[in-house]
TrEMBL record:
Lineage: Eukaryota, Viridiplantae, Streptophyta, Embryophyta, Tracheophyta
Keywords: Glycosidase, Hydrolase, Membrane, Transmembrane, Transmembrane helix
Pfam families: GH5_mannosidase
Enzyme Commission numbers on file: 3.2.1.78
Database matches in SUPFAM superfamilies: (Trans)glycosidases (SSF51445)
Name assigned to this protein: mannan endo-1,4-beta-mannosidase
């Protein structure tokens, strides 16, 4: 279950299909001492299909710890954040994917549309400051397609409660203009947040490797993929209008959709083409810098071994 909630983030540039890097334990040599890394901490950029840092290729050995902000919000569990980042850095890992959202759930960052809990925001400040201390960059996800930590269901519920929701469908997160506007408010607040520990606005902080729009989006009510495509186009443009420093990805699982019929046989099974997501089409959007795939062979090929 935890794997479903966290999602296994595998990152590589859009066209770099050749190398699929999974949760890598390989140690890439000793890390420089922290103070040396402190001196140079640039933004990760992209040149074609290559990630770049300070003019050289940047390779990612990444992992998922979706819970960092949540644990940082609680004095009792807060030390786990440092311990996790320390352990990752020690293994030579360079990027950690984590949630920059918690909508309406316990320890919510956003308690209702546009209302933020400062204590939890400070917890996210702490996560970012700690990551930098350990020379680890963060891939920050902005909302969940699934229900854990609120997700799109919570946004739809809010709109419904305020009497402005057009539809009770959870997919109205993608098509309802009021809910799109909720989410844009969320994006803007997070991207322009000034970290209370470092004093740096999130959008100007090179500790952030990239933004991820949404964890594992699916819009099953529109299998053509048009609804999700339109949402990604609008939200990716919005992110880039506020923040031109950071890379951006969607957060896709990686299933092929109707626009690439020749690739449909590459999906685990036929159901994967009917989820309203469309890997190539979604990833080709000009504001999207790189793509991800999430792999769950235990679920997909259950009983087939
Ligand atoms: C980007 O890549 C191209 C092609 O590999 C190369 O010619 C160019 O110098 C690179 N630009 C930078 C800024 O590294
Ligand atoms: C939305 O999703 C939640 C959680 O999966 C579910 O309980 C609810 O029934 C869904 N709403 C609709 C209208 O399908």
């Amino acid at each position: 279950m935890e794997r479903m909630v966290g999602g296994n983030g595998l990152f590589y540039p859009i066209l770099g299909f050749a190398s699929c890097v999974t949760f890598i334990y390989l140690s890439f040599g000793d890390l420089m001492p922290n103070n040396e890394k402190e001196q140079k901490f640039g933004f990760v950029e992209r040149n074609g299909t290559q990630f770049m840092l300070d003019g050289s290729a940047f390779y990612i050995n990444g992992w998922n710890s979706y819970w960092l902000m949540d644990h940082a919000a609680d004095e009792y569990t807060k030390p786990r954040v440092r311990a996790m980042l320390q352990a990752g850095a020690k293994m030579g890992l360079t990027v950690c994917r984590t949630w920059a959202f918690n909508d309406g759930a316990y320890n919510a960052l956003q308690s209702s549309p546009g209302r933020f809990n400062e204590h939890v925001f400070k917890a996210l400040d702490h996560v970012i400051a700690e990551a930098r201390q350990h020379g680890v960059r963060l891939l920050l996800s902005l909302v969940n397609n699934l229900q854990a930590y609120g997700g799109k269901t919570q946004y739809v519920k809010w709109a419904w409660e305020e009497g402005i929701g057009l539809s009770a469908s959870n997919d109205s997160f993608f098509f309802d203009p009021s809910i799109r506007s909720y989410f844009k408010t969320y994006i803007k607040t997070v991207l322009t947040r000034r970290n209370t520990i470092t004093g740096i606005e999130y959008r100007n902080d090179p500790t952030i490797f990239a933004w991820e729009l949404i964890n594992e989006p699916r819009c099953m009510s529109d299998a053509s993929g048009d609804t999700l495509q339109d949402w990604i186009e609008e939200m990716s443009a919005f992110v880039k209008s506020i923040d031109k420093n950071h890379l951006l990805t969607v957060g896709l699982e990686g299933f092929y959709g109707p626009k690439t019929p020749k690739s449909l046989t590459m999906n685990p099974e036929e159901w994967a083409s009917r989820l309203g997501a469309d890997f190539i089409r979604n990833s080709k959007i000009s504001y999207i810098d790189f793509a991800s795939v999430h792999i769950y062979p235990d679920h997909w090929f259950h009983g087939k071994a």
